[in-house]
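Sorry, I am new here, but would you mind making up a protein's amino acid sequence and the tokens describing how it folds?
***
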Amino acid sequence: MKIFNSLDEFNLKSDTAITIGKFDGLHRGHKILCENLFAMEREGLLSLAISFVDSPTNVVNESDEKKIVTNEERMALFKDSGISVFIECPFDEKLMKTAPKDFINRLVDDLNMKCLVVGKDFRFGYKGSGDVTLLHKLSEELGFKLIVIDKLQEDNVDISSTRIRDEIAKGHILKANQLMGRNYFIYGEVVYGRQVGKKIDFPTINIKPSKDKLIPANGVYISVVQIGSNIYQGITNVGIRPTFDDGNSLSIETHIFNFDSNVYGKEVKIVFLKEMRGEKKFNSAEELKAQLVKDKNYGIDFFSNEHVNLDI
């Protein structure tokens, strides 16, 4: 996959099939857009996805909404998808104030767009004033093929990044994974914690995620961990460790089954498979340990009895 950081960075010689969006989570609906690009690529067009460094919604509304996937994670997912070209451009004032027709003209002239694939709610141009009705007119005027995809639904409700974000925030990982068509994950560097787990014979690795990463609700989750090329089973606690701490700092710590290696400073990937229980304050370390043993046994049974999708 070729990666570019600006619409001004190059002129493509190949004719292209393009899709555009925030692609937060790269969920099942987004995958249908990509599948249509791949179909056009088989007909001779180059598949190209355009996204943004900063979410247009965050920029316009001056908000700080957390992301299902960080920019780096989104780029990795696109690479795995098979997209030929990925452009991650800044959503700056110039782009924000571009008139809808001027924006599409630019795609046709600079990127040789012969096909555009979008969802039916796609908006573009200054203040989102462009829509699919305008795109139909422009496609006839400028000579490109327009493919408009209906929203994919689950339980008679649209699959969207907003819906998935809400499920993750509530700790409903199993549902979120179902909507995405893949497993939610967090990348992070293994950092030193307070060594409380080690003291009660339940050692954990602690990770520090990206500041803009959406974190699930506090609780315990069945998870798998990728360290290098190795995959391990475990359980992950997200929370404030109320039994031992003052509740002011969030931690993400994973107990890996049958694991005792030193991985401090390494980048790992924690993949969340299923929610187990909410976070709870215990009266003593012994009471906490007893619950953790139950959690571990539940996790071991899960891996033994379930057909687990290790789409990591």
Summary: The chain has a mean pLDDT of 89.
